């Protein structure tokens, strides 16, 4: 007996229920809302001061759940790629949603920061890792002709999430405290994600693809091949992409992780202005995804990656030279850095699809995405260490510029199609 996943069950209804074009755009919208829920991790800083006051924590201790959450998020993705291919996006998202909801709700029972790290950081982070890849894989398969744009729009919700979730968290924390806020948000996320998982599915063969697109896709398949995970790991292209993605996330997270304290201590802006700045930066972070996804579709991954690294190097250098006491430079440069971090979260999935095909996309991008986890951990640790060593956040930005230049060279030399010899 053959196992039937949610794609097989629904495939006959792809056209009958609504036009494929309308349905695939509906899936992008659903993915956008799913990512708003998942992206609430970017609002975690709202919890830090209340938790520090509640448990008498240092700044390093209060950031522990955030770092572990990002790491579990990144390193869970490779483990669920095969599950996504076998059981389909609906079941995958449902299971991940249960973990997300459990992580947030159980966090309300925490008695110290270490229990919170286990319940919220490990369980909740793993849940996001399970869910995250599904909307991206759906966009890649439903939009073979412009996957970068579709992926970028889907991921836009992750970047914009703090605009919605941070104010809600602030209000709840003020009224019911940080621990109960975890409970209320966890219940809400669980309900929303489970409901949104119901329509999710992969397309049947040819749905949403024009004859010209099909021909182009077939040509690309002959030229590049549909590489599985083991074949991908034997290509130089994978290691170039993984390293470039790591450097893009590392340099971006080193910078944006200190955006608020840099504004207060170096740019000399007020606390109120700093709060406004972070909201502005979140918009740029969100818009970076569709913008760089669109650029990747048109300019190819190598050229888009080089543009991103060039911008990071230039504006990090500008911050180092002119950022002291300059609010305008602060706003402009950090906006560009946040834009580029969001951009890399669209460049990398689109490049994975372009270089290695869509057949094994779930497994392949899961491996590529581990670079985000490495970048997140190294970025947070290194920026803090540089500040503690030198006494100023300005010291972070020469390092960011150098990393971006190295990334630019890697993108130029390594981000090329991995051609497979055929008989």
Q: Number of helical segments?
A: 18
Gross morphology is globular
Fill in the CATH topology of the largest domain.
Answer: Growth Hormone, Chain: A
Beta fraction: under 5%
Query: Would you identify the regions where 5 or more consecutive residues have pLDDT less than 50?
Result: 7-17, 208-224
CATH-defined superfamily of the largest domain: MFS general substrate transporter like domains
Order of helices and strands: HHHHHHHHHHHHHHHHHH
The tally of domains stands at 2
CATH class term of the largest domain: Mainly Alpha
Q: Can you walk through the features of this model?
A:
The longest helix is centred in the last third of the chain and has 52 residues, at 271-322. Mean pLDDT is 85; it is low at 7-17 and 208-224. Helices cover 81% and strands 0% of the residues. The chain is mainly alpha-helical. It has 18 helices and no strands. It starts with 5 loop residues before the first helix and ends in a 9-residue tail after the last helix. It has two domains: 13-203, Growth Hormone, Chain: A, CATH 1.20.1250.20; 219-418, Up-down Bundle (Growth Hormone, Chain: A), CATH 1.20.1250.
Quick description:
This protein has helices spanning 6-10, 14-17, 20-38, 45-55, 59-62, 64-107, 113-142, 147-176, 178-197, 211-223, 229-232, 236-256, 259-265, 271-322, 327-356, 361-368, 370-390, 396-414.
Task: Walk me through the topology.
Layout: H1 6-10, H2 14-17, H3 20-38, H4 45-55, H5 59-62, H6 64-107, H7 113-142, H8 147-176, H9 178-197, H10 211-223, H11 229-232, H12 236-256, H13 259-265, H14 271-322, H15 327-356, H16 361-368, H17 370-390, H18 396-414
Helix pairs in contact: 3-7, 3-8, 3-9, 6-7, 6-9, 6-16, 6-17, 7-8, 7-16, 8-9, 8-14, 8-15, 12-14, 12-15, 12-17, 12-18, 13-14, 14-15, 14-18, 15-16
């Amino acid at each position: 007996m053959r196992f039937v996943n949610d794609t097989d069950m629904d495939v006959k209804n792809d056209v009958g229920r609504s036009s494929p074009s309308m349905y695939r755009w509906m899936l992008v919208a659903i993915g956008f809302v799913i990512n708003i829920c998942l992206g609430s991790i970017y609002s975690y800083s709202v919890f830090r001061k209340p938790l520090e006051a509640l448990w008498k924590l240092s700044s390093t201790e209060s950031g522990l759940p955030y770092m572990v959450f990002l790491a579990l998020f990144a390193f869970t993705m490779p483990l669920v790629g095969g599950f996504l291919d076998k059981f389909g996006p609906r079941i995958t998202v449902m299971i991940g949603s249960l973990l997300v909801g459990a992580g947030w709700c159980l966090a309300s029972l925490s008695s110290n920061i270490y229990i919170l790290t286990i319940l919220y950081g490990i369980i909740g982070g793993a849940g996001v890792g399970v869910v995250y890849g599904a909307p991206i894989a759906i966009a890649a398969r439903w939009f073979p002709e412009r996957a970068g744009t579709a992926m970028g729009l889907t991921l836009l919700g992750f970047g914009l999430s703090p605009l919605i979730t941070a104010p809600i968290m602030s209000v709840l924390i003020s009224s019911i405290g940080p621990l109960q806020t975890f409970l209320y948000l966890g219940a809400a996320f669980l309900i929303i994600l489970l409901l949104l998982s119901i329509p999710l599915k992969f397309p049947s063969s040819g749905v949403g693809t024009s004859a010209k697109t099909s021909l182009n896709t077939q040509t690309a398949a002959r030229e590049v091949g549909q590489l599985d995970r083991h074949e991908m790991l034997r290509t130089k292209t994978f290691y170039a992409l993984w390293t470039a993605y790591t450097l893009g996330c590392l340099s971006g997270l080193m910078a944006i992780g200190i955006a608020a304290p840099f504004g207060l201590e170096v740019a000399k802006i007020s606390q109120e202005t700093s709060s406004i700045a972070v909201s502005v930066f979140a918009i740029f972070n969100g818009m970076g995804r569709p913008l760089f996804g669109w650029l990747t579709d048109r300019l190819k991954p190598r050229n888009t990656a080089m543009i991103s690294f060039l911008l990071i190097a230039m504006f990090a250098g500008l911050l180092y030279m002119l950022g002291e006491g300059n609010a305008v430079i602060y706003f402009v440069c950090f906006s560009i850095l946040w834009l580029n971090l969001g951009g890399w979260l669209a460049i990398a999935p689109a490049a994975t699809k372009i270089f290695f095909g869509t057949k094994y996309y779930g497994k392949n991008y899961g491996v590529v995405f581990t670079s985000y986890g490495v970048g997140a951990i190294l970025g947070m640790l290194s920026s803090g260490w540089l500040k503690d060593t030198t006494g100023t956040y300005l010291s972070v930005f020469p390092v960011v510029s150098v990393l971006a230049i190295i990334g630019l060279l890697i993108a130029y030399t390594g981000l090329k199609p991995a051609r497979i010899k055929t008989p």
